[in-house]
């Protein structure tokens, strides 16, 4: 017996029947209610968290990915070399040298990488020559590069400086060049967010589109292509 409501539901406006049995990787006990609400919110909030950094890493990633094959310019570093006369008395060790360079050139050298090589005997024109100890001081951040070389006994130090343009600065941020622990941990949260977005997005996609064969084909196809091109590059 048809009711008044049933008579109003013509074939054109009846709601479509559900197909494919719900979410592909979720048990039926989780495919409803509070868990799905949490899943959608988690996906959305992690997407918002990584949006700004995603733009930076996506843009610079495209530039770096094509810099060899398509010759896309990714910026430049303008470099210059100078020789600085040392004060009297000379800095007594590499740390003192780094501090003096920081004051002289107005550069933060508190996190400089310092290397000291002891003196050694080398052969020059078939004659043994005593080579003095050398100091190398390197300071690098996304925008600037400073490299100082000093041979013990000299009255000067050779300094190379470089200033990056905007594109090079962005690429250095992408690579974490000269960045501290805070930046590294921040980027780690983005990487973790991308993993979580991939997982939650896969679960949500299977409900929206439902074709399990297409889901499996798309996922396995993209992974197969990635493995194929990676192996081709390694073996080539």
TrEMBL record:
Q: In the UniProt record, does the keyword Cell inner membrane occur?
A: no
InterPro entries, A to Z: PepSY_TM-like_2 (IPR032307)
User: In its keyword annotation, does this UniProt entry include Transmembrane?
Assistant: yes
**The organism's place on the tree of life at top rank:** Bacteria
What keywords would UniProt list here?
Membrane, Transmembrane, Transmembrane helix
Pfam families noted in UniProt: PepSY_TM_like_2
Q: Where are the transmembrane segments?
A: 44-64, 183-206, 212-231
Query: What PANTHER family does UniProt report for this protein, alphabetically?
Result: INNER MEMBRANE PROTEIN WITH PEPSY TM HELIX
Its recorded name reads PepSY-associated TM helix domain-containing protein
Origin organism lineage: Bacteria, Pseudomonadati, Pseudomonadota, Gammaproteobacteria, Methylococcales
